[in-house]
Structure formats: C-alpha cells, structure tokens
Amino acid sequence: MQQKRLMNFLDELRWRGLLADISAGMEEHLRQPRCGYLGFDPTAASLHVGNLVPIMLLVHFQRAGHKPIALIGGATALIGDPSGKSDERPLLDRETVEHNQKAIEAQLRRFMDFSNAPNGAVLLNNQAWLSSMKLLDFLRDVGKHSTISYMMSKESVRARMDSGLSFTEFSYQLLQAYDFYYLSQHYGCTVQMGGADQWGNITAGIELSRKLGGPHLYGLTSPLLTRPDGKKFGKSEEGNVWLDARLTSPYRFYQFWINLSDEEAARCLRIFSLLPREEIEMLEQQHRLQPERRIIQEFLAKDLTTRVHSAQEAKRAAHTAAILFGHGLADELRQLKADDFEMIRETLPHGILSRTTLERGLDVIKLAVDETGFLSSRSEARRLLQSQGISVNKTPVTANDMIGVNHLLCDRYLLLQKGKKNYFLVVVE
RNA sequence: GGGGAGAUACCAAAGUGGCCAACUGGGCCUGACUGUAAAUCAGGUGGCUUUACGCCUUCGUAGGUUCGAAUCCUGCUCUCCCCA
User: Fold this and answer.
1) Nearest-CA neighbor of A304 among A280, A338, A269?
2) Is the pLDDT of residue A48 over 80?
3) Do A162 and A54 reside in the same domain of the chain?
4) What digits encode the pLDDT tens for the residues A14-42?
C-alpha cells in the first residue's frame, strides 16, 4: 500500500496539471520515501491564492509518503529574488520580514501534517544558517564553484540585463543554491520543488551540490498558473486575493472562487482540490453538461474557504451569497430576519449610521460617500448613478432619491450595492 | 571619465507654447445580454461644486521665462545606451 502510494506522486501531479519540469532520474529516486523542500520568501504579510499552487506540491508530496520541508526564506527575502520580476525591487527592512514570516508560518501550518510521523512536515527558516554565514566563507565555499557565465545564462538574469539588475539580486540564485545544499547535508533533503520560475534557482542548487561533492539532487516545478486570457491568477478587482482574513475577508475569498470562469474552474479543480481522480472527472462531466449550475465553482469555494479559513466561515459565506444572489428581488429582502442581517454583517463590509442622521433624510451620495464611506469619492458616486450602478435594498436609485428611515430593513439595516456584486451593509444605531 | 537618449495618469505610449485633465491601447469600473460564466456591444476611468465650454490638483524634482507651459530655459535626482 505504502509502496503504491509512493509511486504515484509524479503521476498524481501529471494528471492534475501540476507538473511542468522535472529533472532526470526523479522517477526512480522517488521510489523510496524522500525528503523534499519548497521555499516561500516572506515578501508580503500574507500568502495569496497564487501561493496555493506550491503549497499543493508539498501537500501531495506528503500524501505520497514523502517528508516535506516548508522553508521560510527569511534571509533570502532580505535580498530579493529577481526571478519573474521585470524590475529591481526595493529592499525590505528587517522588521517587515520578521513580521511577514510569522504570519506566513502560521498560514503554512494549516495545510500539512506537522506531527512526529516519519513523513511529518517540518518548518524551517533559512535565516538559521544564512544570517550567520560569513561573507568570505560564502565567497570561498559557494562563490568559487559558480561561474559567471553559468549564473548569467539563467533566464531570470538574462531577462534583466537591459532593465537593470543589482549585484544583490544577481547573487540570489547562489543563496538558494546553498539552501538546497545545506538542507541536503543537514536534513537529507534531496528534492526541491517550486513554480516554473524557480527552475533556474533549483538547478543552481543541484549544480552546486555536484560541484561540492554532495549527493545527487533533484528538482521539479509546477506550471505558472495564469488565467485563460494570460493574466496573472489570483488577482481580483482589488488586487491580490490573500489568505489572511484581515486582508481578504472569507466572504471575498469565497466569492473569488465562485466567480471563476467555467474554463478556469475546471482547471482549478484538479489543481486545488484533493478529490480523487474519479470524483473530479465526474464533476467535470456534470460541469460540462450544465455549466450554469456552477458545481465546480461552488465546490472550490466551499472547499478552499474551509481549508484556508474554517468550515464555519465557509458556511457563512455561502449563506450570505445565497441571500444576496439567490433571487435578489427587493421583496425578498423584506422577508429576512434580523439574524440574517447580523450574519451578513459579519461577512460584508459595513458602516454605521446614526438614526438621527437618517431621520433627517439623506441623498444617495451623502449616504454612500460621506456617511458610510462605501464609495471613496463623490465623482465615483455620480458616475455610477448615471449608469444605474447603485442600488439601495436591491432597487436602483438616482441622485435625487432621498433615503430615510422608511427604507430600513428590520428597522435597522440598509443594503447598498455597487453594480451587481459589490455589497455594503449599513447598520443604524 | 566622455558622449547620447529619456523620466507623462494603474501599465504601455502620444503630445514639444494656448483647441490638454492631457490622443490611443491594455487594465479597471458601470450598463446591456447571461448562469454572480465566457464572448460581444455601449458608456466611463484625478478631485470638488451652484453639472458649469466653472474651479482646484496632476505630465521626475526645484526654480525661471511668458498674458499663458506637460511643452521653452536653468539647477537637481533617477534610468537606459554607446565609448573609455
């Protein structure tokens, strides 16, 4: 049984569309339980949905019986990885990195089994060995084995030859190469995984180990996930979709998956869900026959919101969505109970309005911009009003409409709306 | 060290004395169609207001010339290219 699962890791990645590049001999190498790592540089205060792809590599690696190391690049984040970036990036200060790595560490812990099992996951930080390393040692031990022509041949470097690349970022690949070598020496780690943009850094490590007389190391990458139109995955209107509930609310997170196009959803199901192949294929078939039911979108929304946040948050988000998008008629809003609104309040952005202000009556612009901050400028509000883009309680309004206590739902709430999908709850106190 | 080119809104890129809040494309927002999809079409995309061919802020930065500057001049900062 164990043996069978071990052999399936690469096949698993293949049919899920998670395999881009793989170094020679990996197939054979993975016939036994191995230790592999994947790094996350704490360059932001949270991971985002794009980071879920590499996380899934580690998850599958562990499920196949191997031992995963999640490496936080606390040291490398101070240097900056040029891979996939068109410009030199400003240095992050130490406090920021410090803060980021704590947050990211907590997020990573949710996805794997960190128990004492033989293949229990391990969390490490490369500051442990890089920050105490002496420059001269590094140049003699690592630098000496790396030729300029080899380093310059990396795609990440070549792409930056015209737009500028500092020595600092140029040297990044050596640090990552050393990480791999170090982990092979101290943790018996022989496999490194990453996104396709990491291939150059990974091979640098394999090469370094070879030069230093270390073990034969192996690398594997997943394709970079893009949207059907070639755009970056994981960006919504507001920018990145974060895993941190304070940056992207569970409701928004849920909505991100619900709003995937049919095409994206099908691909994402294989990549992000842990369902076995047969079940996925069944869902795909239903999806093809009745795309309008959006079975996959809903499954992903529920599944991922649960895994990233909690089952309770997922349920809440689903319930809120059902209310807001269910049939969406003004009359049905009036059927809702105070409890429903209180739950919606937990999930939607909301603002407080004093009853006396409302009693005096407000026009829509005052309400949406000045009193609640739902919209950021009056011009925006005016523009939206001109195209029927603002609704109060599901009813489109105009600039002249006055909003008063008679609009209140359950005598306490107003549901503002910008376009079809952007909701905002006003609570009167 | 020498020579050249450049810095325009979220990005790319026009504009080189008034017709410029600034062409165009992408992105983004809204509307129509729909399934909270895709594609398509339409409108919008600095802010404020008495919505007005009105006002304020914006074309790297600091000054200057001019009735008037993103456009001309000077200093500064940064970027790229070529030669040494």
Assistant:
1) A269
2) yes
3) yes
4) 999 999 999 999 999 999 999 999 999 99
Query: Domain of A8?
Result: 2-222
Q: How far apart are CA A184 and CA A198, in angstroms?
A: 18
CATH of the domain at A342: 3.10.290.10
pLDDT at A389: 92
CB atoms within 10 A of CB A117: 10
How does pLDDT run across A71-103, given as a tens digit for each residue?
999 999 998 888 877 777 777 889 989 999 999
- Strands A390-392 and A413-418 come out as antiparallel
Protein-to-nucleotide distance from the CA of A399 to the C1' of B48, whole angstroms: 17
Phi-psi region of A239 (alpha: psi -120 to 50; beta: other; left: phi over 0): left
Burial of residue A190 (CB within 10 Å: 0-12, 13-18, 19+) is buried
CA distances from A158 to A86, A112, A171 (A): 11, 36, 13
3-state secondary structure of A273: coil
Measure, in angstroms, how far nucleotide B80 C1' is from residue A164 CA: 9
Q: Is residue A81 part of a domain?
A: yes
Residues A140 and A162 in one domain: yes
Q: Is nucleic acid strand B under 7 Å from A211's C-beta? A: no
In tens, the pLDDT along A323-340 reads: 898 765 777 788 888 999
pLDDT value for A7:
54
Distance between the alpha carbon (CA) of A164 and the C1' atom of B83, Å: 20
**Residue A130: DSSP 8-state:** H
In this structure, the answer to whether residues A101 and A180 fall within a common structural domain is yes
- For residue A1, the model assigns a pLDDT of 45
| A96: in domain | yes
Q: A135 with A215, same domain?
A: yes
Instruction: Identify whether residues A198 and A253 lie together within a single domain.
Output: no
The answer to whether the beta carbon of residue A259 comes closer than 7 angstroms to any atom of strand B is: yes
**Residue found under tokens 């993975």:** A30
Asked whether residue A315's C-beta has any atom of DNA/RNA strand B within 7 A, the reply is no
ipTM over 0.85: no
A229 within domain boundaries: no
The domain that contains A32 carries what CATH number?
3.40.50.620
Please state, for a pLDDT cut of 70, what percent of chain A lies above it.
94
Residue A28 structure tokens? 């054979």
Which nucleotide has the shortest C1'-to-CA distance from A322? B36
Report the nearest residue to nucleotide B51, CA vs C1'.
Answer: A382
User: Do residues A353 and A320 share a domain?
Assistant: no
